[in-house]
Amino acid sequence: MTAVHALGEEDVAAAAALEAAAFGAGHRPAEACAAALREELTRPWARLWGARHDGALVAFLLAWHVVDELHVLNVATHPDAQRRGHGGRVLSAALAYAREHHVRLVLLEVRWSNRPAIGLYRRFGFYALARRRGYYPDGEDALEMALELDASSGQPVPHEDEVSGAG
138 near 160, Cβ under 8 Å? Predict the structure, then answer.
């Protein structure tokens, strides 16, 4: 059984290890991930959700809530737990929070080549907003995606992509 909940300081080590495993050897080491997550937890606008399966942290989502926007900074799923809906569960939790707090716009960046993640975001109603060239440290482009939420219902407002070739 998978449960999603807000994460705190006690979850930092597990989230950092998950992030390091999810993004591989070229990513920052777990110690640097832990320091960055601890710093995020000190910010009043930062939100961190995690999905646990059989007690183990298998996915997390880090976002900033500023005024009427939620900016998703990081979504990570442990490699052994990918393609099992855990990323969708943490995204669902973030979007439920967005609706509850009358967020108007949810934004994120995703690697241009990450077709599975782009597909996940599209299933939730995100659309392609822009291509950000050379966004990642390795030079890969990012696809900026957005989800507009209706102010009264909290439901996604349909949009056409604003950039072509975006998966």
Answer: no
Position 116: which residue type? P
Highest-pLDDT range among 10-24, 39-53, 80-94: 39-53
What tens digit of pLDDT does each residue of 52-108 get? 988 889 999 999 999 999 999 999 988 787 888 888 999 999 999 999 999 999 999
**One-letter amino acid of 57:** L
Predicted TM-score (pTM) of the model is 0.91
The token pair at 39 is 């710093």
Q: Which residues contact 47 (CB under 8 A, 6 or more apart)?
A: 6, 62, 63, 64, 65, 70, 94, 97
Helices marked H in 42-134 — which ranges? 86-100, 115-123
Nearest in space to 69 (alpha carbons), one of 96, 46, 98? 98
Q: Which amino acid is at 13?
A: A
Six-digit token string for 58: 């298998």
What secondary structure letter does DSSP report for 24? -
Question: Distance between CA atoms of 72 and 56, rounded to whole angstroms?
Answer: 22
CA torsion, ordered 110, 114, 119, 120, to nearest 10 deg = -60
d(CA 155, CA 51): 23
Question: Are the beta carbons of 120 and 83 closer than 8 angstroms?
Answer: no
